[in-house]
Model the fold of this input.
Amino acid sequence: MDEGKGCFSSCMASNLTATVVLIITVTVILIRVSYVIYWTGKPVRRTCRKSLSTLVVLGSGGHTAEMLNLLMVLQKDRFTPRFYIAAATDNMSLQKSRVFESSLDDTTGKHGVAMQFVQIYRSREVGQSYITSVWTTLIAMAHALWLMIKTRPQVLLCNGPGTCIPLCIIAFVFKVVGIRWSYIFYVESIARVRRLSLSGLILYKLCIADELFVQWPQLQKKYPRARYVGCLM
Amino acid sequence: MDNVKDSEISKRTVFVTVGTTCFDALVRAVESKEVKDGLLRRGYTHLFIQMGRGTHTPTKSVGGDGSLSVDYFNFSSSIADHLRSASLVISHAGSIFETLQFAKPLIVVVNEDLMDNHQSELAEELADRKHLFCAHPQTLHQIIASMDMESLLPYHPGDATPVVEYINRFLGFPDA
Done:
């Protein structure tokens, strides 16, 4: 009888401990997430004197042309080393970024700095069925995680393609967990005049991007937290 | 020599491009009698079609005697050369800035078969700003008949410097 009581109370106790531990863990995670969200979008106060490793997410066609226009005026010595990521089905974009990198007038003599060009699996191809896309999404997420662990960028530059979403979410998780603090900049494509793209909308609503740039004034009116910067093309 | 020059001057080519897409509706539209007659009336002599992944093959024609010369190809690595030598460009919405940089009169035809057709937003916005004309496959002949080349304003290419300045300031890089 006593034994039964003892077991009962010890079970209760362990249950209680588990609950308390769970509540504490959830609270800590929530506090940490709010802390990360609070600091997302706040400019860095101290002067940055080091170069920052940068991940550039390329999309197909027009997206890549816009991104290369941006990279053209970017201070290359500040954003180095640079990693380029494009969808595995997109052979043109990485080729263009390679041409761009090799065209850089390298007077600094830092040619040894590794530029990496990698392809990433897409979660869903156009026309793919939803059932098989569950499986491919899992593979795509795992691949994105692996690439992010390998590169751990401090700056993410993206401008539209859906491939940037898993990478940005992982970057956000890295901030929460404390693996790497990064800054996410998203430039909405010039083709978006009246509404944000799905990628832009996700980053805007979830407050994941530090700055979300738009290229048309009417878009900034609709999404007040976005920043209007004029046309890139 | 003079004759060659004369024929070069009198040759006015309309270049149709669909990029890497499949846009049979546009190829069929430019091949229609209304559009071809409209182009002739506006003084164009040659129609050159880049048909991409389309399945509809246009009918070639040598032209002359009050008819339009028609020729086509699938892909080319030097679209720029074709754009440069054209007097009028009719394109899908994906090649807008490529064409505008050559300051050629441009009619953008919106592909209604695309599911997420955000490209038409851009074409309509730039048409409102008088940088190009915007049409649908079935309204192309009307646009050709009514377009006023004098009303077009040159497009000045944008600049990524403001974005880069924001990013630099955000990250605490000292101003250069």
User: Anything to note?
Assistant: The mean pLDDT of chain B is 89. Strands of chain B lie at 13-17, 46-50, 69-73, 88-91, 106-109, 133-135. Chain B touches chain A through 29 residues (CB under 8 Å). Chain B has one domain: 13-171.
